[in-house]
Specification:
Number of strands: 5
CATH superfamily: Fe-S cluster assembly (FSCA)
Helix content: 25-40%
Order of helices and strands: HEEHEEHEHH
CATH architecture: 2-Layer Sandwich
Radius of gyration: 14 Å
Oligomer: single chain
Strand order of the largest sheet: 3-4-5
CATH topology: GMP Synthetase, Chain A, domain 3
């Protein structure tokens, strides 16, 4: 595991990336499911989902996550894995801030 970089720091680094259709952070939406360090912390694997399987900005979001993850200190390689399980549910996965922005109560 990368001792210089934590999962929390990765989530914070990804927070500025917004879903352009919703104008909400993908981290706040709960689209980032997991961050894993591999190869003695030199590689980062980010597991994420999209708001729907037909999300038109999916490739754009995945590319933005890859670019940001690969640019982090000590990271030599990054991989973004798209997962569909569990199914994304903003009522249970989004932050309170995102729920407020989306009007979910």
């Amino acid at each position: 595991m990368n001792e210089l970089l934590t999962k929390e720091q990765v989530f914070e680094a990804l927070k500025p990336i917004q879903d352009p259709e919703l104008s909400v952070s993908i981290v706040d939406l709960g689209l980032i499911y997991n961050v894993e360090f591999q190869n003695d912390g030199k590689k980062i694997l980010v597991e994420m989902t999209l708001t729907s399987p037909g999300c038109p900005v999916g490739p754009q979001l995945m590319a933005a996550v890859h670019t940001k993850a690969a640019s982090l200190s000590g990271i030599e390689d990054a991989e973004v894995k798209l997962v569909w399980t569990p199914k994304w549910d903003p009522k249970t996965m989004a932050s309170e801030e995102a729920k407020d922005q989306l009007g979910i109560f």
